[in-house]
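Run log, item B.
One chain of 414 residues. Sequence copied directly from the ordering sheet:
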Amino acid sequence: MSIFVVLLLIIVAVEFVMFKSSREGIDIYKVEVGRVENELRAHAGTPGYEPDISAYETILRVERYEPESMNPKDGSGDFFNSDNAYVVRDVAGTLWRIDYDTNGDSERVYMFIVVNLVTAGVVLAVAVVLLYIYFAIIRNFHRLSDYPFELAKGNLVTPMKAEKTRYFGRFLWGLDMLREKLEAEKVENLELQKEKNVFLLSLSHDIKTPLSAIKLYSAALRKNLYTDEDKIREVAEKIDENAGGIENYVAKVISASGDDFLNFDVREGEFYLSEALDSIRSYYSDKLAAIGTKLTFNDCTDVLIKGDRDRLIEVLQNIFENAIKYGDGREIDVSFSDEDGARLISVKNTGCTLSEEELGHIFDSFYRGSNVGSRGGSGLGLYICKKLMARMKGDVFAQILDGEMQVTVVCCKR
């Protein structure tokens, strides 16, 4: 709207200048007639004087009144007969007819009208475009502006109202998919929390019984309630039996914690490798340039890959984030090779400080190497990569080559 107001102000200013100019143009002939009259008065005593009209824009002719040249029979030589507009001036007792042109004034008025019509058309077109932009885009955008805040606050129940617009249709569809995904994850998290609480209550109850027995037996032994050797041996066996029960519960907890607790759903399909690489290259080219890290993508032919494009992008993102976090920030190099019906994608970063002994554990869940320092993380990035590539019938492995860390993703070709 402010653009429209500025445009109107500019148009009004131009119109004012043009109007003023046109008004001045209309009065030019009056000025020039006055100049001719002054020139005639200045040379009133000069016999046979004829003014030079070549210097005038609107003056066509200047004629002296001579009665002897008039022919009353046919009207020729009539001083007052002219095809042009004229004025008659008395200069020192002599009549002078000054013919002037008014066509220039008409042209100026015509141009003024044409320019005004064109300007009005431009203003109308701009107004229509701005109104369309407002109703088609800006109004819908204002309507959507509160939706992300509602999602952030956890208001996931209200669906997004569909809009029949080509500008926001896909965007609204994506927002509603995000809402549904967040809502599903919220329900899943609540179920997991409920199961966790039930599990902890059950575990504490199951452990409490053998633990109480151990405490009773140990108290009896401490107070020397049993003097018989066989009885003492029996009590010791009972303590060992209950301790074994607790140990079994602990083993079950450890086993349960090692099970897959993350979502590794993979859509089976086919996609061109360039679709995933273009997304990675576009994002990390800007990100790495901002921190001064050189990124090199070696050339490769495009191939059809079996698996889930989005999941492969997730795998490559995890590897890149590790390279950024644990490398020295000098360079990240991406190379490609083919082997036994598979396309290998190798991401190598400079500045590896991980030992060879730790290399075999970096794909374990919650494992963090000795090079993490104070850097944050969960130890799940490469574990997720391993699981996802296994679901896509591929693999991922790591090597240390001349002091550089290289992680290679093995993708099955179509």
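Observations after the first pass:
- The two ends are 54 Å apart (CA to CA).
- The mean pLDDT is 81.
Flagged for discussion on Thursday.
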